[in-house]
Amino acid sequence: MSGLLLVTQGAVSQGVLWGIMVLGVYITYKLLDIPDLTADGSFTLGGCVCTVAILSGVDPILATVMGLFAGLLAGAVTGILHTVFEIPAILAGILTQIGLWSVNLRIMGGKSNNPLLKSDSTISFFVDNFGVSQSQAALIVGIILVLIVIAVLYWFFGTEIGAALRATGDNADMIRAQGVNINHTKLIALSLSNGLIGLSGAMVAQMQKYADTNMGRGAIVIGLAAIVIGEVLMNRVKNFGLKLFSAVVGAIIYFLIRAYAIQLGLNVNDMQLISALLVAIALAIPVAMRKWREKAAYTEGDLYADEHAAANPSANALNPQNKEGR
Amino acid sequence: MISIKNVSKTFNKGTVNEKRALDNLNFEINDGDFITVIGGNGAGKSTMLNAIAGVFPVDCGKVEIDGVNVTRDPEFKRAKYIGRVFQDPMKGTAAGMQIEENLSLAYRRGKTRGLGWQVHAQEREIYKRELARLGLGLEERLSDKVGLLSGGQRQAVTLLMATLKRPKLLLLDEHTAALDPATAATVLRLTREIVEGEKLTALMVTHNMKDAIAIGNRLIMMDRGTIIYDVSGEEKARLTVDDLLKKFEEASGTEFANDRMMLSR
Q1: Beta pairing partners, B134
Q2: Are A207 and A123 in contact (CB under 8 A)?
Q3: What is the CATH number of domain B1-81+171-265?
Q4: What is the fold of A3-220+230-266?
Q5: Which of B75, B95, B119 sits opposite A171 (nearest CB)?
Q6: What confidence tens digit (pLDDT) does each residue in A234-287 have?
Q7: B78 to chain A: closest CA residue
Q8: Do the Cβ atoms of A34 and A67 come closer than 8 Å?
Q9: In this structure, how many other beta carbons lie within 10 angstroms of the beta carbon of residue A139?
C-alpha cells in the first residue's frame, strides 16, 4: 500500500476513535452550552485506566468499559462541583482536570507512559482473527462504536430525561418552572459526556498501544475544532442524528488535515497552536462579520430620506443635507 | 386554597442596598379566585409571585398550598402545583426546541421524567386541539422551532404550557407588558378565556388599572412589601381608576408612583 494511503487510513481510524470524544464534547458544548474542560483529564483517565487494567490481566472489553466508567466518575465530580457547590462550570472543569493529572500518574504507577505492546486488546482481537492491520482494525471497531454511540444518544435525547436535558441548555428558567431539577440534568449530561470521552481515551490507548499521561492534552480544543469543522461542512443538516454524525466527520477531517500537514513537514508540536487558532477563528468570524456589517451599513445622513421626502416634501426642502453620506 | 402567613423577604441584607421586599405578607387565595395585583414601583408584586413560586427562600413565614407546607421546597418541586407566565416572552419557552416539544415538556410538569419517549402520537392530538384554541394557526406548525415565533405567539404558547396540566395556581407576572398593544390585548383575551373557562385560580400582576378592575373577581394593591387593599365581588366591580388612586394615597400616605401605570391610565 502506498504511503499516502496508509497515512490516510491511519488518520481516519484516529478520527473515528477520537470522534467518540467529540460526541462527548458535543453534549456539553452544544446541548448544555458549557465548554467542559474536564475533557483533557477524563480522556487521559480513560486511557490510563484501560491500559493498566489490561496490563493487570483484565479482559480488554471489561477494561474498556472501566475506562468509560472512570470518565463518567470524573464528569460527575465536575458536575457536583458545579451544581451542588455552584462553582462556575469552566472552573469546575479545570479543577477536575488538574486533579486528574495526579490521579492519572497514580493509576499509571508513577510512570508517565505504559506500553501495551504484547497485550490483547479489543483491536488486537480483530488483527489476530481477521488478518487486518492495526489501523484497519481500529477503524472497524471505531465505526461499530460510533454507530452504537450515535444510536444510543439519538434515543436518549428523545426520551423525557434527554429532552429535559436539552431544555436545560436551551432555557433553564423554563424547564425549572416545569418541575425539572436542573442540577440533576446537568450532572447527567456532564457524566454522560465524560463517560464517552473516557471510552474514547480507552480506545485510542489500545489503538496506539500505549497510554500516556499527556495523551489528552488539548482534547477539548480538538473536540471544539471537530464540531466547528463538522458544522461548516454539514451546515444544512437538521436531523439530530446527522448533527452527531457531522461531529464525527469533523473529527476525521481534523485528523486528516493533521496527518497531511505532518507529511508536508509540519512540526507535530505546532498542531495545538493550529487547533487553537482554528477554533478561535471559527468563533471570531461571525462576530467580526456582524461588526463589519453594522459599520458598513451605517450612514450619517437620513437613510430613509426617500420615504420621508415622499411623506413630507416640505420638510426635505429644509434639510437639503439629508441625502449626503448615503 | 393557598395561604401565605407572615412572609418577609429582605434582599442584600447588611449592605447599602438592603431592601425589605416583602414585609409580613399575609393573605389567602381561595379556589377559583382570579386576583389582579397592582402597586407602585418596587411594591413587591413580583417578589410576592416569586416567593409563592419558590424562586428564592423566604426569611420567615409559611406558604401552604392545599394544606401542604411548601415553604422550604425549591422552585422545581413546587412546579407541580404552579403554572407560570413571565413578563419576558423569551423566558417561558425553549427557543431551540419544537412547539410540540415545548408543550410535551409542560405536559409533564411536576411529573418524574423517565426514559419513555418524549413526544407521543396521541399527545400530539391534544397539543393540536389546545393550540387551535389560541386561534393563531400554530396547530399547523407543531414541529416548528419556537424561536421562529413572534413575542406574542410565544407568550400565548407559554400561557398554554402553564395551563396544559391544570395548575392549582397560575402566576401571571405582567405577562402582556412586553408586547405591543394589539398583541397584548389578544394574549389578555386568551388569558381570560382560559382562566375563566377552566375556573383556574390565578394571580395576575398588571400595570393597567382598567384591566385590574375589569378582570377577575378580586383585586389586591401592594405597597412596601405588603397588601394595603384587598377588594372582591360587587365592591370591586364598582371601582374606578380614581377610586384606586385615592385608596392608594389613603393607605400609603404617598402618591401613586408607577410610571408605566400612570402612562397607561
Answers
A1: none
A2: yes
A3: 3.40.50.300
A4: ABC transporter involved in vitamin B12 uptake, BtuC (1.10.3470)
A5: B95
A6: 888 889 999 999 999 999 999 999 899 888 888 888 888 888 888 888 888 888
A7: A179
A8: no
A9: 23
